[in-house]
Amino acid sequence: MVQKLSDLARFLMKFCSACGHAVILRIPAGDQRARFVCTHCHAIHYQNPRNVVGALPVWGDQVLLCRRAIEPRYGFWTLPAGFMELGETTAQAARRETLEEAGARVELLPLFSLLNVVRAHQVHLFYRARLIDLDVRAGDESLEVRLFKEAQIPWEQIAFRTVDQTLRFFFADRQDGRFGLHTADIESG
Amino acid sequence: MVQKLSDLARFLMKFCSACGHAVILRIPAGDQRARFVCTHCHAIHYQNPRNVVGALPVWGDQVLLCRRAIEPRYGFWTLPAGFMELGETTAQAARRETLEEAGARVELLPLFSLLNVVRAHQVHLFYRARLIDLDVRAGDESLEVRLFKEAQIPWEQIAFRTVDQTLRFFFADRQDGRFGLHTADIESG
């Protein structure tokens, strides 16, 4: 992913993106929330949470993780994931991020986890996935990619709580012999 | 929901929201996509799809629909749904929209549908829900709210394809006696 997961600065707005004049925070008529509203053209600039979409790629009894080559959490392990782009579906975003960060082609399985990261204004979505082959390699944002059996997972070096949670859901479900959709609310990414 | 579902104008940007100078579309270093980039402070303004979250409220063998008092699709029937706001979870958004549009309090059940509306840059999420009581009333954005048995659903007057699709998934699952998560990609809202 190119955007930083911790990037909250984008939710601050000083000028109107339509006309360039100053904006102020106020509650528009008929609304209940303060919005950035242009003092000149009166455009209302709504802001909404963003989706981070990824995959949990599996090969036999192993899962694929990427070691991050970028901040935040440089050097920590993560599942391939990133911000959903305009013009793509959630499934396309998961496949694209898996290819970009791990050089890996996957067959996507059903959506596996939906995690609200409220303070970061993000929703994280992970699909289970099957690696099509072992032709994987670190992309620009990864130091290395590697397959891990459950006992080998570097739990102390997982980059994000949503990734930790998704992996824990996965191994619990695998133990139970059935996979469902898991939802959870997490305070920080 | 306060924002219009068809509002695509927000994805056009002429001025930098951080410094007020002109932006241009270009591909930043290390990126693969054109972004709005400020000619003065060089801020990159990423844009991402938004989530529309709602509920499918059930009372016995009936489902609750709202008749829209706003455009688009004034006068058509919909499930209560709207844009997810900063600072809330997907479940909180579903409950809030159900209260705002139908005056209804619900117990949320598992997430039921995830629908990509690629051309509108939206992801629609619907939770199944149980109405807590029949104390419902049209909110500001609804002309009326009403309970419908399956045979009474006004299929020709459903406001959005994601609502139509979610209702069809629901009645099919109810027939089968089991509810799952359904995903689909839809070209327009």
From TrEMBL, chains A, B:
**What UniProt keywords are attached to this protein's entry?**
Hydrolase, Magnesium
Give the Nudix hydrolase domain ranges. 48-171
Is-annotated flag, keyword Nucleus? no
Please provide, alphabetically and separated by semicolons, the GO molecular function terms listed in this UniProt record. Answer: hydrolase activity
Q: Which InterPro entries match?
A: Nudix_hydrolase, NUDIX_hydrolase-like_dom_sf, NUDIX_hydrolase_CS, NUDIX_hydrolase_dom, Nudix_N
Keyword Hydrolase in annotation: yes
Q: Which cofactor does it need?
A: Mg(2+)
PROSITE patterns to which the protein is assigned, alphabetical: NUDIX, NUDIX_BOX
Give the family per the record: Belongs to the Nudix hydrolase family.
Which protein is depicted? NUDIX hydrolase
* Source organism per UniProt: Candidatus Glomeribacter gigasporarum BEG34
